[in-house]
Write a structure and sequence with these properties.
Blueprint: E1 9-10, H1 20-30, E2 39-43, E3 50-55, E4 60-65, H2 78-88, E5 98-102, E6 113-117, H3 136-154, H4 172-187, H5 196-205, E7 214-216, E8 225-227, E9 235-238, E10 245-247, H6 249-259, H7 267-270, H8 285-296, H9 303-326, H10 338-356
Antiparallel strand pairs: 1-2, 2-3, 3-4, 4-6, 5-6, 7-10, 8-9
Helix pairs in contact: 4-9, 5-9, 6-9, 9-10
Length: about 350
């Protein structure tokens, strides 16, 4: 296979521009031997943090910064992304090399940001391109590789890589449920439902004990990884670590399953797919849970709770983005329908609750 760069960039969106001379100065202050002046473009994908391609004559970088406007207090943390990637890189190769981070207090951008390498390779979106020539067998192999990498992350010794103080893993489940419920209340707009029943169910159904503690990515999806250009079954880099934490790995699996749609799901939900999870040969959620349980020893008999959590958490994330659009804090028209998406996901969580029997 020929190596293909699937990292699509666009001209920088209005209102999200970077000063090229300023960027050049700070880049050359922290990184040696850069040649020429930077060309700055923006990555089209992603609905949260702003991600830019910084291209020099001899090297390419990625700059990540928070969005403009009101942001959740604990969200959009650039130092969190930078810290976890820098720490696990020696033991877990599937992360980009990081170069430097600047906090908001000393940042010339007026907001914290960090710079990492731009990893070349294949990046999936909604569907597997036809010219890849994938069939059922290749799809299954890709799926297995994807979830094996998540298992590798969840079984990584976070203390051994220096992340013992990255956060407090104990009580993670309760903090997540209460935290996301509260975030939804603060981000609610007049055109979305309250979903009090879903929030109450999540609080009432929380497991009394946690499965264990691990590094949780928080947003692990097929469209958040870069695949090797020659061997697309090999993951070169996992992106978007902004809400990574130490916590119960089953909560992280629930986050991933919220995106993992499959045949038989409601048609309205299938229409929102962001990754080719229901292509022929891909594992079902049930098969993935079986694979995960066998590899980790965790009990997934009550996985419905973690799945509902993941779906409602996604609804909250979508609503937080929509809140900024609703109040005119971003002009990105792609967010105009996000309120409808919030309602769709909230109702899907209700559907899963009814199916769960809990």
């Amino acid at each position: 296979m020929v190596q293909v760069n699937m990292n699509k960039t666009i001209d920088v969106r209005t209102g999200e521009e970077l000063d090229a001379a300023l960027i050049d100065a700070v880049m050359k202050e922290h990184i040696d031997d850069l040649v020429g002046a930077p060309e700055i473009r923006q990555f089209a994908s992603g609905h949260s943090n702003l991600t830019y391609s910084i291209i020099y004559d001899n090297k390419k970088f990625v700059l990540r910064r928070p969005p403009f406007g009101t942001k959740p207090k604990s969200g959009h943390s650039m130092i969190r992304e930078y810290t976890v990637m820098k720490a696990i890189k020696p033991a877990f190769s599937a992360v980009p090399q990081t170069y430097f981070h600047l906090p908001a207090e000393t940042s010339p951008l007026g907001a914290e940001f960090y710079v990492m390498e731009q990893v070349e390779g294949r990046k999936l979106e909604k569907d597997i391109p036809k010219d890849w020539g994938f069939g059922t067998e290749e799809n299954r192999k890709l799926c297995m590789s994807f979830f094996e990498k998540l298992i590798n992350l969840h079984t990584l010794d976070y203390k051994a890589v220096g992340l013992e103080d990255f956060g407090k893993p104990e009580g993670y489940v309760a903090r997540q449920i209460l935290g996301w419920n509260g975030r939804y209340e603060r981000a609610k707009t007049d055109d979305v439902e309250s979903f009090e029943d879903v929030r109450q169910w999540l609080e009432a159904t929380m497991p009394k004990t946690e499965a264990g503690h691990a590094i949780c990515h928080g947003d692990y999806r097929l469209d958040n990884v870069i695949l090797n250009g020659e061997n697309p079954f090999q993951i070169e880099a996992i992106l978007d670590w902004e809400i990574s934490a130490l916590g119960d790995p089953l909560m992280d699996l629930g986050n991933t399953m919220a995106y993992w749609l499959q045949k038989g799901d409601p048609d309205a939900i299938l229409a929102t797919h962001m990754q080719p999870s229901f292509a022929d040969g891909m594992l079902t959620r049930e098969e993935i849970c079986d694979m995960y349980a066998k590899a980790t020893g965790h009990d997934l008999s009550r996985f419905a709770f973690y799945h509902v959590y993941g779906v409602f958490r996604l609804a909250v994330i979508i609503q937080q983005i929509y809140y900024r659009y609703y109040h005119g804090q971003t002009q990105n028209k792609a967010f105009a329908h996000f309120g409808q998406m919030t309602n769709l996901l909230g109702n899907y969580a209700r559907h899963l609750i009814e199916k769960s029997g809990f």
